[in-house]
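tool_call: predict_structure(chain=1)
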Amino acid sequence: MSNKEVKAALKSARDAIRNKEYKEALKHCKVVLKQEKNNYNAWVFIGLAAAELEQRDQAKGAYKKAIELEPNQLLAWQGLANLYEKSKETDVKGDLADVYQKLLELCESGDKQKWCDVCNKLVELYHQEKKYLEMAEMWQKLIQVKQEEGAEKAELHQLWKKMIQLLKDSTQNQYNKTEQLLLTAFEHAVNSADPVPGEDHQNLYKDFIQCLSKFPQETARLEKACKDMMVLYPTVSYPLEVLCLHFVQSGTLSEEALHYFSKLLEMDASSGAGIIGFGIKCLQEKKYKEAIKNLTEGLQKTSQCPAAWHYLAEAQMKIHKHRDAVLSCNQALEALGASEGPSLRWKNLILQLKAEALIKIADADAAEEAIKALEQIVDASSDPVVLAIRGQAYLNKGVMDQASKVSQELLLSHPDLAESHALEGFIHYSQKNYEQAERSFLNAIERKAETAEYHHYLGLTYWFMSDETKKDKGKALTQFLKAAKLDSYLGSVFCYLGSYYRDIAGDKSRARGCYKKAFELDGTDEESGTAAVDLSMQLGDMDTALSILNEATEKASTGTAKWAWLHRGLYYLRTGQPSQAVADLQAALRADPKDSNCWESLGEAYLSRGSYSTALKSFRKASELNPGLMYSIYRAAAVEQILGKYENAIATYQQILKKTEEYVPALKG
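tool_result:
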């Protein structure tokens, strides 16, 4: 068969394919291959015809043979690509990607439009396969080709936006090459947008900033993007809010950060991030109550900010609201979620603060919870301060041998650490080894003189050590005053100062002031509240006494603050206000229904009000609870007499006289 006949047969095959006579085409090709078994076109035509006849394996074999013969010719590669594209089999996707890569290589120096078409197909394939990195790199190459060809800025902008769209669902919040390419796409899209400023551009900027804020590695870029957007959109609060939250999470508050907090609040007084920032500023300035108020308000609007919860817990610790601090730490841990990288540092800080708060609650259950929190701290065993907290937890739990073991290890490994000596002091103090405790606390103070707790415990040590150290002005009093000066929220130290001025110095006025302060700091401190009221009454200052009682009863829930209800009830009874006395004494009894003296006082209040039957019941209840209360038995008889129940009254009087012959009121009755 001559060369001319081969060409004629190939032309016949091409015509047959054009006329969709695929079997005819195959015959012509076979004729050619008999003569020239390595004829590239014949193999390509077989591939085409076999594909149309659904003979996929034959088509694939033919294309591969053609490629083997001429690996740098387009036709066979295009045919193979078409074959794979129509295939319903999923396992050909990898092969198709390889084919597209080869086509790109072949078209690169020639037909740019064809190259772009193939590139689009490959990107779509990678997208379906969730191969985001390969997709992003391919799309970036496409944009590069377009740039080299002199594409318009608007076209390039749309291409960068398309890249963002393609990568949007790829974000795993893991900082990798794919994410870096996404950020690059955002940067280019933002810089190529038109018009600026404009709504689309503004939304694009917001998305860019939101994406940056997921990655702690990109803090410099995040700050720059926020500041650039603020210049372009000075009335939009979003970049300022993100920037402020970024400063909060960074844990270091510079002058610049404080400036932005103020700026945000000027723009939007109700901004959660702005209010949180102001709360942290208050914390820095030691305005703890104001800090708590602002941080709480800010977190109601922006709750997913672990650092802000931590700052709130810190402020709550400063004013000794330990249970509140534990709740804030729990919220911080919840907002933190899975922790790695910079958030791991926050997790460790929060767990440590939680453990400290639980130790201050000082019961065995809280101690157990503190130990569990400490176990979650990464590298806790290498941190001596964390070890000292663990020792205190063991002490609170009552596991003395474990506490002592930690203490001894710390004193050996970290003899210059104040916490090592303080832990030893707490252990000695709990065992009433006051002389050893004194030595330990003095050592702790020598290393960390500004810690109120150490001075407080040294004061307590002197208080219980002996009468001599208790009364010595230079011992207990000096330490309590130092503690109070260092921590003006430490209620218990003011209670002891009150006891010192009342029982040792005999200064009722100063004692009353200290007890009042202790009660203001801790509304559950009955000892201080009672003492402040008693001293106010002794000083003839009923207004102060009443204001303390009113404050206590207003805050009290049902069945609590018996001392306050009882004191106020007795005051009303003495000042001829029986109805108010009845209400308060009933409230006191709800807290302690078995208090016979309280029932007796309630009987008096009913009697003063003229409610004789209820008065009689109250006196009888008092004498039931305490048969030795002669006065209640006598008052019951007196009320029976008023009610005209003379026989009962006489019997009760005689009953009293059997026990106490000389009881004059009964004889008189």
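agent: The longest helix spans residues 342-361. Proceeding to next step.
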